[in-house]
Design goal:
Helix content: 25-40%
Structural class: alpha/beta
Shape: globular
Radius of gyration: 25 Å
Bound molecules: nicotinamide-adenine-dinucleotide
Length: 498
């Protein structure tokens, strides 16, 4: 059995806890490796290394740090195929989608390549007589990222790309379900010229997460995962005096107006609801057709579209999506489908009996479609995170607008329409953080920022872009006076600008 170990101070650190997590091959259902789960002591050892490394790295000029990012990007691109295969083999998403996962992360690295420009401070010459004021952004020190299973390349790069470029040193605690790609990324960062100790990977579960939250030398924590854990990380981390941003779950709605281009909607919905087996926080698991005619047409066309979908092993180039990440997750999705049926929604297509020949033990589940889903239902309220599309019918624009606005989650939302005025009004009024207009998965580009509202995010800064830069730095403002001649007498009054 292959063991996946921590990566600390530029080398493998063999775990000593005696505790391991199983890493499955979701295509076959077999355990393919085990990952070491860290102790609080091992986490502390990584922090000490990162503290040491911070001295040199934070004093390295930003252009040199950017050069490491340029080289890292080149190396990741050169290793794209191997990384994508490794990612798919542990996660289960198809290879083309794994490449997308890596590519979206690399786009944040591209942003980080421009860090010398982004880090420039502000300067006011002559704010008073002989007085200049300037501000600078400085790194925080040792910082940490805790990431989910569903984007094992992109989300770590969202975090460490910006955090390291601004001069911090980083502890990454990736998901224990697909831990290999994060380790490869840290190895490539070393190869790219990142000094030992700048990017460390410590595997683990709640024990290492709690150790991160309690460690006095970790100054900031970025978390992405499910909402209950996000809330826990946010409250414990801030209680310990840390800066914390914690992104949580989602239940994104796609509003389909009667004038929408239905051919496009069907294709977009299919990809956004079932791609990556629905295991995306920006998936579209809820569709809201406006008006009976729109709903009836959409229902028939989605049934036909679902019949054309090919579910297959993750290295099948023809497959639209592969298995879900674990047997437990598959069982949870199947349970939600049963609950949906029991609470009165109409199960139009049932994907639960799907079996892939030759891979009967794999964690596959076919696409499912519900109609007649209502706001009071548990399966509407909660995140399923599987290939299940729920149709909630609305009679008017106002009713459709209210659904995502009142939902507990507020990550993403999309509207499909040909009417610019309606789209504009929707974007302005909807109570959700990221909006797509005829765009089903509106993940913002790297130089903008990513973040939801309500129970989809705790904290007040988003991931990457200038918000990321703000999160990973602290600002210092200097007021300098170079008076000519004699200094004035001391003053006991607060200085004001005359
Ligand atoms: P998860 O919450 O189970 O795990 C996320 C991280 O928390 C992992 O590193 C895990 O080891 C750790 N963790 C798990 N249980 C813990 C506990 N009890 N105490 C402390 N730490 C714990 O999430 P997941 O299943 O890996 O990922 C899927 C979830 O992530 C979905 O809810 C999805 O919507 C969400 N997600 C959100 C975004 C976003 O940006 N909003 C992006 C991707 C995924």
């Amino acid at each position: 059995m292959r063991d996946i170990q921590h990566f600390v101070n530029g080398q493998t650190l063999v775990g000593t806890s005696g505790r391991f997590g199983d890493v499955f091959n979701p295509n076959t259902g077999e355990v393919q490796a085990r990952v070491a789960l860290a102790t609080a002591g091992e986490l502390d050892a990584a922090v000490q290394v990162a503290l040491q490394a911070h001295q040199g790295w934070s004093a390295t000029n930003p252009q040199r740090r950017a050069r490491v990012m340029f080289e890292f990007k080149r190396l990741v691109e050169a290793n794209m195929q191997d990384l994508a295969e490794l990612l798919s083999s542990e996660h289960g998403k198809v290879i083309a989608d794994s490449k997308g996962d890596i590519q979206r992360g690399l786009e944040v690295i591209e942003f980080a390549c421009g860090i010398p420009h982004a880090l420039k401070g502000e300067y006011t010459e002559g704010a008073g007589p002989g007085i200049d004021v300037y501000s600078m952004r400085q790194s925080l020190g040792v910082v940490a990222g805790i990431t989910p299973f569903n984007f094992p390349a992109m989300i770590p790069m969202w975090m460490f790309g910006v955090a390291i470029a601004v001069g911090n040193t980083f502890i990454l605690k990736p998901s224990e379900k697909d831990p290999s790609v994060p380790v490869r990324l840290a190895e490539l960062m070393m190869e790219a010229g990142g000094p030992a100790g700048v990017l460390n990977v410590v595997h683990g579960d709640k024990v290492s997460v709690d150790a991160i939250l309690q460690h006095p030398d970790i100054k900031a924590v970025s978390f992405v995962g499910s909402s209950d854990i996000a809330h826990y990380v946010y409250s414990q981390g801030t209680l310990a005096g840390k800066r914390v941003q914690a992104m949580g779950g989602a239940k994104n709605h796609g509003i389909v107006m009667p004038d929408a281009d239905m051919d496009q909607v069907v294709k977009d919905l299919s990809g956004a609801a079932f791609g990556s087996a629905g295991e995306r926080c920006m998936a579209l698991p809820v569709v809201v057709p406006v008006g009976k005619k729109t709903a009836d047409e959409l229902r028939e066309r989605m049934i036909a579209e679902i019949e054309t979908l090919k579910v297959g092993v993750s290295n099948d180039a023809e497959a639209q999506y592969g298995p879900v990440v674990s047997a437990a997750h598959r069982a949870k999705i199947a349970e939600y489908i049963q609950i949906g049926k029991d609470e009165g929604a109409e199960l139009v297509v049932d994907g639960r009996d799907f079996k892939l020949q030759g891979y009967e033990k794999g964690f596959f589940i076919g696409p499912s479609l519900f109609d007649g889903v209502k706001p009071g239902m548990k399966t509407y309220h909660e995140e399923i995170f599987g290939p299940v599309l729920q149709m909630v019918r609305a009679d008017s624009f106002e009713e459709a607008l209210e659904l995502p606005s009142k939902h507990q989650y507020g990550n993403g939302v999309a509207i499909f329409t040909r009417n610019g005025r309606v789209a504009r009004e929707f974007a302005a009024r909807v109570n959700v953080g990221m909006v797509g207009i005829n765009v089903p998965i509106p993940v913002p580009v790297a130089y903008h920022t990513f973040g939801g509202w309500k129970r989809s995010a705790f904290g007040d800064t988003n991931q990457h872009g200038m918000e990321g830069l703000k999160f990973w730095t602290k600002v210092k403002t200097v007021t300098a006076r170079w008076p000519e001649g004699e200094m004035a007498d001391s003053s006991f009054i607060i200085p004001t600008m005359k």
